[in-house]
Design goal:
By secondary structure, the chain is mainly alpha-helical. It contains five helices and no strands. The C terminus is likely disordered.
């Protein structure tokens, strides 16, 4: 322990004990410092290891929390991208439909026949060919028979029945219908 210095002693007599007491105190302080350093060094490594373990556990917790947030953000972005893609696809389909309608209108104004018009003309031509062959007394060619077989069953009997009842009238009506349709489509 540290010894206390009393103030009642004489200056000369006291100077020797005072210096020895200061020396003893300084030596005790130095020894206390060395002991504290040794203890801190021994316990410091244990404290350091404890701090490292705590830091590792905190790092793992924060890393797992960050990964969860990244997964949430990724799923949100994926759903948003899917929504945007579906909306864009819908808008693209609308735009395509509008474009097709406008092109069809423009082609109609120019007198270009549509696919429906062309198919109707083909049917009329087939009916006229059949009527002409029946009037001339020639049997229908194999190609005509094949085409008649490809057509729907309801349309073929009606045309044959009309051709058998009044072939000249049916031929005249079909020819009359074909002429205005063909002439109105040309510029």
């Amino acid at each position: 322990m540290v010894t206390k210095i009393s103030k009642k002693a004489a200056p000369q007599a006291e100077s020797a004990p005072l210096s020895s007491s200061v020396k003893d105190s300084a030596q005790q302080i130095w020894q206390a410092g060395l002991g504290a350093f040794t203890r801190a060094q021994a316990e410091g490594s244990k404290a350091f290891e404890a701090l490292v373990k705590e830091g590792v556990s905190i790092q793992r917790k924060t890393q797992s929390a960050a990964e969860e947030r990244i997964a949430e953000a990724t799923s949100k972005m994926t759903s948003m991208a899917t929504d945007i893609t579906s909306k864009a696809t819908g808008q693209w389909d609308k735009l395509e439909s509008i474009f097709e309608d406008r092109v069809a209108k423009a082609m109609n104004k120019l007198g270009v026949p549509s696919a429906k018009d062309v198919n109707a003309l083909i049917e009329r031509i087939d009916a006229l060919n059949l009527a002409v062959q029946q009037l001339s007394g020639k049997a229908p060619a194999k190609k005509t028979a094949v085409k008649a077989a490809d057509k729907p069953a309801t349309a073929a009997p009606a045309k044959k029945a009309a051709a058998k009842k009044a072939p000249t009238k049916a031929a005249r009506k079909t020819a009359a219908k074909a002429k205005p349709a063909a002439s109105s489509k040309r510029p």
